[in-house]
Amino acid sequence: MSLRHALLALLTVEPMTGYDLSKAFQASVSHVWHAPDSQIYPELRRMEADGLVVGTEVPWGPRGKKREYSVTAAGLDAFRAWMNEPLSYTRERDPAHLKAAYLEWAEPDAARAQLRAHIANFDQQRTEWLEKVREIDTGTSTMLEKRLAHAPASEHTSIRAYKRYTYEGLIARAEHEIEWAERGLDLIDDLLQADAAPPTA
Asked: What sequence ranges are listed for the domain Transcription regulator PadR N-terminal (predicted)?
């Protein structure tokens, strides 16, 4: 996946200015593809140069103007082609699990602190994603409702279902990481107790 595909996905909903697109990105796509504004705006300019989007000056305030981007037919074709291609998976880089493989080098309290931070991180993410599921179920997701408003009624069920399916996967991943870190905390205690036990005759 590339940043441009994430931006094209958002622009299939409606035309947006760079500012509005950045806000929509942070509220939705950023859960699965992180990118700061410093990457979004240059990518929009490259996409316009490649004919995937077209930018139009629109009024902003009493005298100002903003550039509003719309996806072109070529952009829709590129997005559809990407959606139909199988993913090319890359080898993972996971510092948390790399460090876990060598925790015997860490002080027990430091190891516990790292695992508790891991739990806190994924617990926060799980809370955010559970809220996204609630918004989908209650019809209070702003971006989703905009997408539904521009989509045929016959597609509404599948649009909602795929969005929910995505967040369910993220929730399951977070819960797995929390459970893994909790087992790590138990493992530290078990190993310390084993080391402290008197040798058997």
From this structure: 7-79
Report the CATH architecture of 3-84.
Orthogonal Bundle (1.10)
Residue 68 backbone phi and psi in degrees, to 5? -105, 135
pLDDT over 70 (residue 201): no
The mean pLDDT value for 169-174 works out to: 97
Residue 29, pLDDT score: 82
**Cα–Cα distance between 184 and 99 in angstroms, integer?**
12
What Rg value do the Cα atoms of the chain yield, rounded?
Answer: 23
How distant, in Å, are the alpha carbons of 26, 41, 58, 74, 165 from that of 35?
Answer: 8, 10, 25, 23, 23
For residues 38 and 188, the model is more confident at 188
Q: What is the separation of C-alpha 98 from the centre of its chain, rounded to a whole number of angstroms?
A: 22
Cβ neighbourhood burial of 98 (10 Å; 0-12, 13-18, 19+): exposed
Candidates 56, 58, 57; CA nearest to 72 is 56
Per DSSP (E only), the strands in 24-183 are 53-60, 64-71
- What are the extents of the domains in the chain? 3-84, 95-196
Q: Which tens digits make up the pLDDT trace of 145-166?
A: 999 999 999 999 999 999 999 9
